What does this fold into?
Amino acid sequence: MATASLNPSSTAISHPRLTDSHRRVIHDLRVSITDRCNYKCVYCRTGEVGAQYPELSIEEYLRLIKLFVGLGITKVRLTGGEPLLRRGLVELVQELARMRTLWDEPLDLALTTNGHLLDGLAAPLKAAGLHRVTVSMDAVDAPTFERITRIPGSFETVLAGVRAARAVGLTPLKINCVLLRGFNDDQIEGFAQFARQEDVVVRFIEFMPLEEGRLWSPEIIVPLKEIVERINRVLPLVDLPAREASETARRYTFEDGVGEIGIIAPVSQAFCGACSRLRLTSDGKIRTCLFSQVEHDLYGRLRAGADNAELRAYILQTVQGKEARHHIGEPGFLKPSRSMVHIGG
Ligand code: SAM
It folds into this structure.
């Protein structure tokens, strides 16, 4: 770990931040709590492969997350697979909401979901202490949406989920849209209107080579520049400043200040230099990068009887090996052994 520094919002207690060998402060943990999914989005799953990895018990996730929080993690995002499928989710959120960071503040607690079960779960999740949700939506018209998810009726179901989440205050509510040329790039302008009408933050994400099948190519990506140009033609965009160095999205609003658009461009404008993330897979492996070629078996050590001090030392050692950057598009690039749905997006 690097030298001690004060959390700006803390009063007196000085704790060393969790820092990797490239001097990046690591404060963001993404935890996959299942690799099962009820959607078969064409760019993610082939539809032939189901869940591949075991799930830990809720108590085991809590024990592992607590170790990370004790080392300086301040933000936890639950994901999957589809996290709303996971039994015990509400209880897990309840326990996480009670955890305090090293700086004696509540954790920043978020969840990423396809939204299919959100209409019924938004209120219990909010009551359990969840702060925000990000809902994945790849189209704003029902036929395109359902062509992508391959689930009839999914558009209306997800829209109801989005509205329920907003109504109970799981806000700011973000919508993530993965753009693929020839699949949904005709939705860009519609999403700009959607952000304004539904009072949500729409974030376009460049497609990364993390699919189960073989769809990715540089040509399928819709780059940031093109998205901005197209929205500007119908609704002029105004730049918003970054709120923190590790922010992944370039943010924009509109001339009247209503609505927000973000563009996350991990391929055309990689932000690895400011990466603050670690991932824990549903079977308890640490991944230091989406594109890691190695996984670190934290849960295996827990099962073998390692005590908390040993597990903490293992996390610290693992963080030191966090990759400087990804190598998408470069000669010799290797896809990781797990696809996005099995890593936890
Ligand atoms: N099931 C949840 C959901 O749909 O949000 C959480 C898991 S999903 C894997 C998380 C996010 O990863 C979704 O927004 C999805 O669109 C995105 N995603 C999946 N494959 C991707 C890829 N190859 N490149 C970029 N984003 C991807």
User: Anything to note?
Assistant: Residues 1-10 have pLDDT under 50 and may be disordered. Residues 37, 44, 79-80, 82, 112-114, 136, 176, 178, 205, 207-208, 210-211, 340-341, 345 surround S-adenosylmethionine (CB under 6 Å).
